[in-house]
Structure formats: structure tokens, C-alpha cells
Specification:
The complex is a heterodimer of chains A (about 100) and B (about 240). Chain A is an alpha/beta fold. Chain A has 5 helices and 4 strands. The chains are: A alpha/beta (about 100), B mainly alpha (about 240).
């Protein structure tokens, strides 16, 4: 049995608590980094991370890119989407195909 | 293309030919793998992109309701309302094998099936916007999980495709031409040796024949001279 966690600032993550997801409040990159590593070491399979925090700790996210667990998924925070999530998908396409063939769809 | 640094012997040639056959078979297999991975990847990534747009829109809506709720209610009240969730989610993680890449498959289970269980608070002291926010979040949960699955899968496939493509290219443009070049070089060298050997033998044969001829001439000469001598003596 694995857990699902949400890392974000208080306002972005609090709502997920009602659904029974594990929520960790992090306001700084340092806190978020520590939380990710702690949750990855525990039995956490999916970590939702706000884009606002994610843009400050790309290295720590890349570290888990190859592992099956955890999957770190970026979600927009309360201030809205920064487009990093979509950008990452496009980057994956570019990496695999060589150029982004889905851009115009 | 540089050829390998090997001794031009027949044994080496046999060895290289065997390596070339293996390399060609590996190249074909890897190319097939790359093509299939690409097909799967494009399917997943298209789905992923759609899903992400949908989820981001839904989450933004939820955040909007939540922001209004937090404006209407005091932070302590909000905190208190959500402090002890009634619902809990657990996740079953299996892995699926796509062309020898292990990708995750999630199955999640809610602790209770009652849709009203997502509200862990009494309605008397909370605002309606909070209900909206929580409801919107719970409706996106399914999509969120699907997004996690497809995004992780896409990431892992992209990585694998990159790796496979690199290997295919290495085989196609470096390894195989190099081996072919080396085998050709050895063949040429061996043929050249063969020709050298033949012409040497011919030369040696000529020399031997010449020697024999000289010897015969000399013998004939001797016999002739002996004959002449005895003839003169008789006279």
C-alpha cells in the first residue's frame, strides 16, 4: 500500500487534505526539498508538487525521473499555472522524437 | 571510416564476420524496439497533454473556490475544518512492461465509497465555497492519478527511446561500417598475399626450370665432348 502526497504552500495544499492525501506544507525550496526526499524514502508512490516550488528545485526532481517510485507530478499552485508542467511534457517529446511534433496540435 | 586495428589473418576475419552478423541482428532488433516505443510513446504523450490541460483547468477552479473560502473564513477555522480528514486514499502500485521498460500502473482505493465522506467538517461553521473547492478537488482526483501514471510513463519512455536511438545510431553508423571495412581490409590483404605467393611460386618454378635446362645443356656438352675425344683417339 502506497501513499499519495501533496507538497505545496498552505493554501495550495490544504484542500487536498480533505481527500485523505498526505499533505506537507512547504513555503521554501529548502522545505520542499527535504519533504520530497523524506517522502521518497517512505512509501510514497505519487508526489504532487506545486510548480512554484518545483521551479526552484529542478535537480531534486530530476533525481527521481528514472525511478518507478515516486512519480513527481507538477500541479499549478494557488497563483495559477506557470506552464512548467506542459513544458516538461513538451521536453519529453523533444527528447524522444528529436523535435516537438505535437506543438501545433 | 577508420578500420579496427587487427592482424589480417583468416581467423580474425572469421571472428569479425561473426561479430558483424551479431551487430546486424542487434541493430534490426533495436530499430524495431525503437519504432514500437515511439508508437506507444506518442499515444501516451498525446493523452497526457490533453489530461494535463484538463487537470490544470480543474485545479485552478478549485483553487479559486478555495481562495474565496479562505477569505470568508478565518484561517484557524479553515485549518480546523480540514484537520481530520474522514476519507483516506491508498494506492496500489503495479508495474507494466512496455518493451522492457517498467512503467507504473496505479490503482487507488478510497477508504469509503460514500461521496459525502470528503467533507470532514460540519456545515454550520464553514462557507459554501469550501464545499465547492473540496468537491472540485475530489472530482479531479481520478484524473490527477491518471495524469501521474501517464506522465511518469511518458517520462520513462522518452528516456528509453533516447537511449535506444543512440544505440541504434552507434550500431548503424559506427560499429557496422567499421566491421565491414575491417573485413574488407582483411580480405584484400589475404588476396594480395595469395597473389604474391602464386607469383613467387611461378618465379621459383621458372628459376628451377632454367637451372635444369642449364644442367642439361652442360651434360649434353660434356657427353658431346667425350664423344669427340674418343672419336679423335680412334682416328
Amino acid at each position: 500500500m502506497y501513499k499519495i502526497a501533496v507538497i505545496g504552500d498552505r493554501d495550495s495544499a490544504l484542500g487536498f487534505k480533505a481527500l485523505g492525501l498526505e499533505t506537507v506544507f512547504a513555503d521554501t525550496a529548502e522545505e520542499a526539498r527535504a519533504a520530497i526526499h523524506r517522502l521518497a524514502a517512505e512509501d510514497c508512490a505519487v508526489i504532487y508538487l506545486t510548480e512554484q516550488l518545483a521551479q526552484e528545485i529542478p535537480c531534486d526532481i530530476d533525481r527521481y525521473a528514472n525511478a518507478v517510485r515516486p512519480a513527481i507530478i507538477l500541479i499549478p499552485g494557488k497563483t495559477g499555472s506557470l506552464g512548467i508542467g506542459i513544458e516538461n511534457v513538451n521536453k519529453a517529446v523533444e527528447k524522444a522524437v528529436g523535435s516537438n511534433i505535437l506543438k501545433n496540435e | 571510416m577508420a578500420r579496427l586495428n587487427v592482424n589480417p589473418t583468416r581467423m580474425e576475419q572469421t571472428r569479425l564476420k561473426r561479430r558483424l552478423a551479431t551487430a546486424k541482428r542487434g541493430h534490426k532488433l533495436l530499430k524495431d524496439k525503437r519504432d514500437e516505443l515511439m508508437r506507444q510513446f506518442l499515444e501516451i504523450v498525446r493523452h497526457n497533454l490533453e489530461l494535463r490541460k484538463k487537470v490544470e483547468k480543474a485545479l485552478q477552479k478549485a483553487h479559486r473556490s478555495f481562495t474565496i473560502a479562505s477569505a470568508v473564513m478565518s484561517p484557524e477555522m479553515l485549518e480546523e475544518a480540514l484537520m481530520y480528514p474522514k476519507q483516506s486514499v491508498s494506492l496500489e502500485l503495479c508495474t507494466k512492461n512496455i518493451m522492457s521498460v517498467n512503467v507504473p500502473v496505479y490503482q487507488f482505493k478510497m477508504k469509503s465509497d460514500d461521496p459525502a465522506e470528503i467533507f470532514p467538517y460540519g456545515f454550520a461553521t464553514t462557507s459554501g465555497e469550501l464545499d465547492d473547492a473540496v468537491l472540485a478537488l475530489s472530482q479531479t482526483l481520478q484524473d490527477l492519478l491518471e495524469l501521474a501514471q501517464s506522465e511518469k510513463t511518458a517520462q520513462m519512455l522518452a528516456q528509453e527511446i533516447e537511449k535506444t536511438r543512440r544505440r541504434v545510431n552507434a550500431l548503424e553508423y559506427v560499429m557496422i561500417p567499421q566491421l565491414e571495412e575491417t573485413i574488407k581490409y582483411i580480405r584484400m590483404k589475404l588476396e594480395e598475399n595469395e597473389r604474391g605467393n602464386t607469383s613467387r611460386l611461378m618465379k621459383v618454378k621458372d628459376m628451377m626450370l632454367e637451372e635444369q635446362r642449364q644442367k642439361n645443356i652442360r651434360q649434353d656438352q660434356e657427353i658431346y665432348e667425350a664423344h669427340c675425344l674418343s672419336f679423335e683417339a680412334k682416328k
